[in-house]
UniProtKB/TrEMBL annotation:
The keyword Signal applies. It comes from Chitinophaga rupis. The lineage of its organism: Bacteria, Pseudomonadati, Bacteroidota, Chitinophagia, Chitinophagales. This is DUF4488 domain-containing protein. Keywords: Signal. Residues 1-21 form the signal peptide.
Length: 123
């Protein structure tokens, strides 16, 4: 009887620990400040910052240059568990960006489906 109680307690403890280790998804994951590098653009590699704020179950935010000056507000935001897509204006052009979760603090994606993007969360 004691062995059964110990086994049941152990299983419950593992379940509780596993539930606490679940990673964030959707708006919870993408909220924050992201530094994104765009590779191979006509002007060479370029870096931008994206400040993403959680609004209920969605995201709102702005695109910034590397000094933190606002370039554009984000529009057309669509959010899935491990993916976010949005549009913004850069150098007079409306461009879109798709980012996919790589791990807790990194994303990969594409700008306009033409240029690779790699991003990391800024703390």
């Amino acid at each position: 009887m004691k062995k059964t109680a110990i086994i049941v307690t152990g299983i419950l403890l593992l379940g509780v620990l596993n539930a606490g280790a679940q990673s964030k998804a959707g708006a919870d994951y993408f909220a924050g400040k992201w530094s994104v590098l765009f590779k191979g653009t006509p002007n060479g590699d370029a870096r931008m910052l994206f400040l993403l704020e959680q609004k209920n179950d969605s995201i709102a935010g702005v695109a910034q240059d590397t000094t933190g000056a606002e370039i554009s507000k984000l529009t057309d935001v669509t959010l899935k568990d491990n993916e976010i897509a949005f549009s913004f204006t850069a150098q007079g052009y409306n461009v879109n960006l798709l980012l996919t979760r790589k791990d807790e603090d990194h994303v990969t994606g594409s700008l306009m489906n033409m240029f690779d993007a790699e991003g990391e969360r800024r703390k």
